[in-house]
Amino acid sequence: MNKRVDRLLQSGLFFFLIATVLLWAKSYLAFRFSFSLDLENTIQEYILALTPLGSILFFLSLSFIFPKAKRIKAFLTLYFIMTFVLFANVVYYRFFNDFITIPVLMQYKNFAQLGGSAKSLMSVTDLLFWVDVVALFVWARMKKGQLSLSVKKRTMGAIVATSLLAISLNLNLANEERSELLTRTFDRAMFVKLMGVYNFHLYDTVMTANTQSHRVFAESDELTEVRNYLSSQKDPKSENFGALEGKNVVLISMESLQNFAIDYKVNGKEVTPFLNDLIDDKNSVYFNNFYHNTGQGKTSDSEFLLANSLYPLPRGAVFTTNAGNEFNGTPEILKEKGYTSAVFHGNNDSFWNRDVMYPALGYDRFFSKKDYDVTPENSVNYGLKDMEFFEQSMPMIKSLEKPYYTKFITLTHHYPFVLNDEEDVMIDQTQTGDGTVDRYFQTARYMDEAFKKFFEDMKANGEYEDTVFIMYGDHYGISENHNRAMSEIMGTEIRPFEHTQLQRVPLIIHSPGLEGKTVDTVGSQVDLKPTILNLLGVKNENDIQFGTDLLAKDREDLAILRDGSVITDKYVYDGDSEKCYNKATGQEVEGSECDDIAQKGQTELNLSDKLVYGDLLRFLEDEEEPLTNSPNKEK
Ligand code: GP9
Ligand code: MN
Predict the structure, then answer these.
(1) Which residues is 291 bridged to in the sheet?
(2) Which InterPro entries does this entry report, sorted A to Z (predicted)?
């Protein structure tokens, strides 16, 4: 053999570089063609191509930690593991349309389920995943004794530096595409698209370790502490217990809808004409002092509140960090009453980890993107347009056994509030010059029209009479970055007082036969679960819940927001600025007047966090009376 070639084949550095390029190419091809990642633009194409490089260099350079004599072996082992991880994800994806996570590996019987069909999921072409592995093993074997990874320290440094550079470049580009990717929105498909499979596993490992450490140190007497606090609080008596017993339930999560849009007019036209009429209907109860308690988990946080009457977490989305916890979700409780539960949503099922969290909450069925006909023509922004979404959902809802407990999650009225079809535009934009705010009213108007159609369809299909509709805004749509434009809309300066008041979202409970009224009690999403269970006549005494029935007469007016703000009938305390205001007049008052409520807010949030981080509800079953059957996680 040519001497130069021979020398090259003995060079550890050459071996390292060739292996890196092979794994890089293989990973890219797998990311690109084995997963459907919905690449939206050329930047995302570039990111996907770049993304494996940093992590491959990083992981393979871990072989430098080993003594020189063992380095080639360590290197090949790492190479093998990375190929295995890639390959396992590819096979898993074929079956589940999702990526492997540690909690899924530990808690679910997914792999057992996959076991039988694993063979049928593989094909001869899969051998291509292993060709390079074999080639590298053969190469190392042939050059045994000569091939060594004893590279200079400087070279090692250069490799590690390149890997870190590639990772941070990747992270920056990913963040431009999706801000706060690591903390806020967490969708596995999105993460893999922007950060790759290897980084995803690294992230998943860190997150799992963090959650587990909290859990391991938690003790059952902490649950007693929570219980003691809750029993020291006022326990209002429900007056509507069982008023809607046996009815079907249709919850509608109204994306980004804040209460200020209700009754608002742009150029003389109502933004929410259907909702305005519904509020005035004799069978509707409307809450005009109802707040959201969501944090970074946005929609998923509101779903968490609704199902559990616990607060979401101060950081991250509890749907992704603590999906392995024990919960007593509303769907699970209602199962005992003979209810079938389902969620309808036109987006990826792994978004917000819903595919994992829903079974844990006791949902029987999740109709997600794969159940709908989603095309570029009937989609905008995040996915399926609301109008199409409701229309296509009709046969699905009809297929459910009654009584049903369902949740519809709308999508079109989502930041950045865009419509792509002239006929969907039914109202003018406002003229503040802030595009986000100006467009907000158009998508809200569109969503309102979709509700109107949905109600008509429900009536036409005979699904209306026996059903209670509970419609709530999931979280704010306009953040404080838009205060200038919002002050124009509201006709007043946006101080911390107005900012806190803007966290009100609409809540409407509508059902034929329900006595209509407008209720001004101060409440929040944490109160939904007890309100719903009471209306349906379900006793839930042993459960831990922070909310109270919104329809109970002697309930305490209270809303504790995730940022520590607290609202009562008298005060508005802004957790951020720590300012205290008179609720009726909006006048700032002595800060000390809010001390008590601020303290109460903190106590309650801390206890709820402790409960979630420590997975304390798992101790509930050890207490004298079991609450419900153990959750049917494997479904
Ligand atoms: C995604 C949808 C929107 O499926 O629920 O999520 P958001 O960004 O509003 O939390
Ligand atoms: Mn949302």
Answers:
(1) 504, 524
(2) Alkaline_phosphatase_core_sf, LtaS-like, OpgB/LTA_synthase_biosynth, Sulfatase_N
Contacting residues for 350 by C-beta, under 8 A, at least 6 apart: 97, 98, 99, 187, 188, 189
- The C-alpha atoms of residue 276 and residue 27 are separated, in whole angstroms, by 53
- As a whole number of angstroms, the distance between CA 509 and CA 516 comes to 9
Choose one of 252, 298, 354, 384 to mutate for the ligand 1 pocket test, by most ligand atoms within 8 angstroms of C-beta: 298
- Among residues 555, 586, 554, 549, which one has the least CA distance to residue 571? 586
Catalytically annotated residues: 299
- For the segment 190-202, the average pLDDT, to the nearest whole number, is 91
Convert the pLDDT of each residue in 63-121 to its tens digit. Answer: 999 998 899 999 999 999 999 999 999 988 887 777 888 876 765 544 555 555 667 77
Indicate the pTM of the whole model. Answer: 0.81
Nearest ligand 1 atom to alpha carbon 475: 9
Q: Is 257 in the pocket of ligand 1 (CB under 6 A)?
A: no
Q: What is the mean pLDDT of the chain?
A: 91
Provide CB contacts within 8 A for 592, sequence distance 6+: 580
Q: Is the pLDDT of residue 635 over 60?
A: no
Is the minimum distance from the CB of 350 to ligand 1 under 6 angstroms? no
Domains and their CATH numbers in the chain: 2-214 (no CATH), 248-546 (3.40.720.10)
Strands 566-567 and 559-560: what pairing? antiparallel
Question: What is the rounded CA–CA span in Å between residue 206 and residue 228?
Answer: 33
Q: Quick check: CB of 354 below 6 Å from ligand 1?
A: no
Helix 354-361 × helix 298-308 angle, to 10°: 10
